[in-house]
Amino acid sequence: MLRAVLFDMGGTLDGDGQHWLDRFVSLYAGHDLDFPRDLLRRAFDAAEARAAVDQPITRMGVSQMVRQHLRWQFEVLGLDDAQRLERMANEFATPIFEAGTRNVPLLAALSERGLALGVVSNACGNARVLCDDLGYTPYLSTVIDSRVVGVAKPDPAIYELALAALNVQPQHVLMVGDSYERDVVPARALGMHTAWLNGGLAGQARRAGRQGQEGEAGREVVVIGTLRELLDLVRTTEQTPA
Question: For residue 29, what are the CA distances in angstroms to 32, 137, 218?
């Protein structure tokens, strides 16, 4: 019997299966900034590295965090245009808030089914602030932030912290995330049910290679294209013997 659902944050609860790097690449292209993807990846990775140790970011919500992330990217790319940065930051943040608007009713519906909900995220110390910003907090029983707890995905230990916080056994938990390596593999290794979220054309291509395969715990790899599919999956999983 299913008793809990755990979610990844980045690429999952903030946007159906779309990784931040892919979104930033599209953002730059939309603003006629024709940088090679490899360079944009270096800028993104540099910003991620700074976010991992920056103290102010631990208190930032969505808009502030996106703006700071872009500022760090601009430094790597040699861009110095405050107005462009502000426009791009707002454009990037808007779909995240739209995802929040879509996902709050989903979390409410799952909660009404008696399921405990939680977030397990490789975050910058601000996962709880982001959940507050997007309206998720009232529905969450735990938020496990890698920077706060000192262990990150794909280490199964971060999932064990979530299981302990919810006081549930892994066979009664569904983990939902957009990364096969960080979300599906370790959760499945512990015996959880998993849903691999893949959005967009790139996601559809990856889905074709994974859907229907058996994972590490012997269960079929379930792939969803949008979080809207989750309620039907939960109903099915609840009927599946552990």
Answer: 5, 34, 42
- My answer on whether omega of the bond before 154 falls inside 30° of 0, hence cis, is yes
Which one of 75, 95, 115 terminates a domain?
A: 95
Round the CA-based radius of gyration of the chain to a whole number and report it.
18
Boundary residue ending a domain (45, 63, 95)? 95
CA 160/CA 147 separation, integer angstroms: 16
- Is 18 in contact with 26 (CB distance < 8 Å)? no
What residues make up the domain containing 140?
Answer: 4-18+99-238
Instruction: Provide, rounded to the nearest whole percent, the portion of the chain with pLDDT above 70.
Output: 89
pTM of the complete model: 0.91
Q: How many independent structural domains does the chain possess?
A: 2
pLDDT tens-place string over residues 66-105: 999 999 999 999 999 999 999 999 999 999 999 999 999 9
